[in-house]
């Protein structure tokens, strides 16, 4: 059926959801950039405090570790969206095109499934650490649910991007793979 048929409202709603996902991904990528700047500044200060002032901070390494996790989990969905992740495609490129398309579809679907299942388990753990007010074992008490929230966000968002890539293999070409690649 064409996009002008009875599925047009559904297609429009899915395009709006995809646009919303892209906006959230851009915002969290900015969070990853800010966390990267924070990590750089805190580690630089920690080196000065430890070796020049002989007075290391207790909070520096703890918050740097959280910052590193935020960098990883807030930036990962952008890589999934833009296909910037490691792509070992020698086998796919060596196959005839009609077989390569099916192998690529299988790969996108497998990546989607694994990410969403891992996000589901992560969400169960997120609820547990939030309800139990679990803190990370560190000098500075930091609630563990912050980290779990970033992990669940990254896995679920990446799973939906892999689903979008999978669906685009059926459409022939897809705008979402090419937009914003500046």
From TrEMBL:
Alphabetical keyword list: Cell inner membrane, Cell membrane, Membrane, Transmembrane, Transmembrane helix, Transport
TM region(s), chain numbering: 27-52, 64-81, 102-123, 143-163
Main location: membrane
Domain Tripartite ATP-independent periplasmic transporters DctQ component: 39-171
Superkingdom of origin: Bacteria
Pfam families hit by this protein: DctQ
Subcellular localization, as worded in the UniProt entry: Cell inner membrane
Record bears the keyword Hydrolase: no
UniProt xrefs under InterPro entries: DctQ (IPR055348), TRAP_DctQ (IPR007387)
Membrane protein topology class: Multi-pass membrane protein
Job description of the protein: Part of the tripartite ATP-independent periplasmic (TRAP) transport system.
Annotated PANTHER family: 2,3-DIKETO-L-GULONATE TRAP TRANSPORTER SMALL PERMEASE PROTEIN YIAM (PTHR35011), SIALIC ACID TRAP TRANSPORTER SMALL PERMEASE PROTEIN SIAQ (PTHR35011:SF5)
Subunit structure, interactors included: The complex comprises the extracytoplasmic solute receptor protein and the two transmembrane proteins.
Record-stated family: Belongs to the TRAP transporter small permease family.
Protein name, per record: TRAP transporter small permease protein
